[in-house]
Write a structure and sequence with these properties.
Elements (H helix, E strand, L loop, with lengths): L8 E4 L2 E4 L2 H5 L5 E6 L2 H12 L1 H10 L1 E5 L2 H15 L13 H18 L11 H10 L10 H17 L3 H13 L22 E7 L18 E7 L4 E7 L8 E7 L2 E11 L2 E7 L2 H8 L5 E5 L11 H13 L10 H9 L2
Antiparallel strand pairs: 1-2, 2-3, 3-4, 5-6, 6-7, 7-10, 8-9, 8-11, 9-10
Helix pairs in contact: 2-3, 4-5, 5-6, 5-7, 7-8
């Protein structure tokens, strides 16, 4: 199965709608594949979305490839960016403001609801939930020259909430449209410290990369090789020390030392001035492993377990290349959050 990092997908009511990442990031309007998981649930919106002929094909074959609708492609791109955007100061890829992403996703979700009512029943987040997240996260700290667009989108959402009889959010969006003013979000970045030189007592050491699937989005630099670790013999024990450079935000993180892929030690990581770091003393078995010259020891940052669908280095490199190419796109082909960051740089 293709990793979700490589294949943006919308979970519709009774089906999945998949897109090609390269097309979405390249601002092309790609074909989209609709795969039905429950034909009875999907049928009410399917014909409205793709027409009678393609709807019959999907109901017969369980899937159909059709030209993408701009509203769905936009929402798929925004949801992908919320989870997989590879922020990396080391690579020149800026962080995107989460409040702006949530806000624009609220607008896009409302547009999809208008396009095919019922398509997003039971979806991961409603326009109301996304709007609430955006406003609680400080939406208007990120406006800058995009202020006018934010104001217009607030008015658009206000009208949509009004049609849904959600008068409270309609009034809230209208009030925010009236109050929105220029501002600028400051992004805090902890610079990575250079790894300490090897010295006496080092039993094992290495460098690793962060698997994007194992950590929350927007927390760590997406570049490769940002993790350094070493196991050092002390007077009383063997100690594992881990450093992860390029912190973009705080989070609850840990690192797990492995031998032949099996975990044998875990260390909690805490955010400091030079990034995330942590140490822990190894038990006797772990210390013996570290002292064995032939031991194949590795290190994993973040979640470990069979339910984690890992990302490969070559896939991460391809995504980074696609994202960096977006710098050459015209402003209207980029997200509001991307344009806000670009405006801050000038």
């Amino acid at each position: 199965m293709t990793h979700p990092m490589r294949t943006p997908v919308l979970a519709a009511d009774g089906g999945l709608i998949r897109f090609a990442l390269a097309d979405l990031l390249g601002a092309a309007l790609p074909p989209m594949r609709i795969e039905l998981t429950d034909a009875g649930a999907a049928e009410p919106w399917l014909t409205r979305l793709v027409g009678a002929e393609a709807s019959l094909t999907a109901l017969r074959d369980g899937r159909v490839d059709v030209p993408a609708r701009p509203e769905l492609a936009r929402l798929a791109l925004l949801l992908w960016a919320r989870r997989w955007w590879p922020a990396s100061p080391a690579l020149g890829i800026p962080s995107l403001d989460s409040a702006l992403l949530d806000f624009e996703a609220a607008v896009a979700t409302a547009a999809v609801e208008d396009l095919a009512e019922g398509l997003l029943d039971g979806f991961e987040a409603s326009p109301a939930e996304l709007f609430d997240q955006a406003t609680s996260a400080g939406l208007f700290a990120a406006a800058g020259p995009g202020t006018e667009e934010v104001r217009l989108l607030c008015e658009q959402l206000s009208a949509w909430f009004d049609r849904q009889d959600d008068l409270e959010r309609s009034e809230a969006a209208a009030g925010l449209a009236a109050r929105v003013g220029p501002g600028q979000r400051a992004y805090a970045l902890a610079a990575g410290a250079a790894p300490a030189a090897s010295g006496g007592g080092v039993l094992a050491e290495g460098r690793a990369s962060v698997d994007w699937a194992r950590v929350p989005p927007g927390v760590l630099d997406a570049a490769e090789g940002t993790v350094t670790w070493r196991i050092v013999a002390t007077r009383t024990a063997a100690r594992l020390a881990v450093e992860v450079s390029g912190a973009l935000d705080d989070a609850s993180l840990s690192a797990v030392a492995t031998h032949d892929g099996e975990p044998f030690a875990e260390v909690a990581l805490h955010l400091g001035s030079a990034g995330f770091a942590g140490t822990t003393d190894l038990d006797e078995a772990g210390a013996r492993l570290a002292a064995t010259s032939s031991a194949r020891i590795g290190l994993v940052v973040g979640a470990v377990g069979p339910d984690v669908q890992c990302t490969a280095p070559e896939d991460r490199a391809e995504v980074i290349s696609l994202v960096r190419a977006r710098e050459s796109l015209p402003p209207e082909s980029r997200t509001l959050a991307e344009r806000a960051v670009a405006d801050e740089e000038f």
